[in-house]
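Re: [ENG-882] Designed sequences occasionally contain unexpected residues at chain ends

Forwarding the minimal case from QA. Structure tokens:
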């Protein structure tokens, strides 16, 4: 009910990997596309590296999206014993190719190349095979080959249900009578295929005798993009925005280690995606993180014990001083500026949520019912462009209908002061110019390191 992620995927993935909010890793602005020479800071210890220090086997399958311009950025150099997946985003589900472009390219000019690697070598034998099936089968293989004398951490980032929307027809057919909208039907089929994959992986854990000592965490990485099949109704907004539809996440925890009185229940405690690192490392694996800089909290007790409160009382959703702008600079980053209310930012504190600047998606009618639902969205007057502050009691008004910023200036002042304090701790936004040397044709013909 109160689980939150970042507005876009790279930011969320970086928080999972490092226990740090993106404002503390320089990754608060955008996704790491192919030609950009930057990535997750190498001085940050990943969750895989931490668990590996304590004897865990560590494996990753699926989407990386945290930079790959040099070999030290690859998953196999960031703590994973094995890696099979793609380094960027938006691949074709069957050819596993991805297009890339950069500033200065003429319209239509693209680099199109394979983006699939097994370890650090390009994987060329999977053309025509649907990625959800491929990733599921690789995870099953990892589980079957695991040495049961060691604990294991396995990080699976399915491509589904990201665009492009592609799925074998048999997964769409069950929806022929209930969903007429083609895009929405394709999306539903992709979810069903992913659900089947998770079921197959769970069965493999049973078959190998590992299930009884397993914790599964499932999480989205951002709100759904409405124009490509997703729907966040009745929440306001979508991916790329700090409305609830962009940051309130779908997630669950499963496994026999959970007691019967919490299994199958809805957890209403406040949890942020940056909490998974300390929750898994300390709460589940029992390792001491004393002295480690943490933006996340160990929320295992709040998950595993009924009626236990989360230690988290506030969530910084985002601060991006350059939101909506294309920036080209060097790898050292753009110096941080002091926060002001024209900046794209949002924070949740207790029942209150403050948004400033451009929230993303739509300043006015940001509610989009599912196609063919027959539901009419509410009509609320659009704020003038020079009015960049919204305040909501998000507990009483989770759909963000009623802006209370004029009624409670004292709450606005308090939350603005919190955003100012957060921004003072931010590291520079890293958003370098694209590099022509990233052209896959100059390397092994697939997207990969070039520097």
């Amino acid at each position: 009910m109160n689980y939150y992620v970042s507005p876009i995927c790279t930011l969320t993935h970086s928080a999972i990997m490092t226990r740090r909010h993106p404002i503390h890793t320089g990754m608060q602005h955008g996704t790491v596309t192919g030609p950009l020479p930057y990535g997750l800071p190498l001085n940050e210890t990943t969750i895989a590296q931490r668990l590996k220090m304590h004897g865990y086997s560590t494996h990753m399958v699926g989407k990386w999206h945290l930079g790959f311009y040099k070999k030290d950025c690859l998953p196999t150099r960031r703590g994973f014993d094995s890696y099979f997946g793609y380094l960027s985003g938006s691949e074709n589900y069957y050819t596993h190719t991805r297009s890339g472009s950069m500033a200065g390219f003429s319209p239509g000019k693209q680099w199109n190349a394979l983006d699939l690697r097994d370890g650090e070598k390009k994987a060329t034998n999977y053309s025509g095979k649907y990625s959800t099936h491929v990733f599921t089968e690789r995870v099953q293989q990892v589980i079957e080959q695991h040495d049961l004398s060691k604990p294991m951490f396995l990080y699976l980032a399915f491509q589904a249900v990201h665009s492009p929307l592609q799925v074998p027809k048999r997964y769409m057919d069950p929806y022929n009578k209930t969903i007429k909208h083609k895009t929405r039907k394709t999306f539903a089929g992709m979810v069903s295929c992913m659900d089947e994959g998770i079921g197959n992986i769970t069965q493999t854990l049973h078959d190998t005798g590992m299930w009884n000592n397993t914790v599964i965490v499932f999480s989205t990485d951002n709100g759904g993009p409405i124009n490509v099949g997703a729907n966040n109704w009745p929440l306001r907004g979508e991916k790329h925005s700090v409305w609830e539809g962009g940051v309130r996440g779908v997630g669950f925890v499963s496994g026999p280690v959970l007691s019967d009185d919490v299994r199958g229940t809805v957890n209403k405690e406040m949890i942020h995606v940056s909490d998974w690192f300390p929750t898994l490392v300390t709460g589940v694996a029992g390792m001491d993180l004393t002295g480690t800089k943490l933006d996340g909290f160990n929320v295992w007790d709040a998950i595993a014990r009924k009626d236990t409160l989360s230690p988290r009382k506030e969530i910084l959703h985002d601060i991006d001083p350059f939101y909506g702008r294309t920036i080209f600079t060097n790898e050292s980053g753009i110096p941080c500026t002091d926060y002001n209310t024209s900046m794209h930012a949002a924070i949740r504190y207790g029942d209150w949520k403050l948004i400033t600047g451009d929230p993303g998606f739509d300043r006015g009618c940001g509610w989009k019912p599912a196609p063919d639902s027959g539901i009419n969205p509410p009509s609320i007057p659009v704020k003038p462009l020079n009015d960049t502050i919204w305040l909501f009691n998000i507990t009483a008004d989770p759909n963000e209908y009623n802006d209370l910023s004029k009624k409670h200036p004292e709450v606005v002042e308090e939350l603005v002061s919190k955003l100012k304090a957060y921004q003072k701790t931010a590291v520079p936004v890293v958003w370098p110019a694209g590099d022509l040397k990233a052209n896959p044709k100059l390397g092994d013909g697939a997207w990969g390191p070039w520097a």
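QA comment: On inspection the terminal residues look reasonable. The first strand starts at residue 3 and ends at 4. Proposing we downgrade this to a documentation issue.
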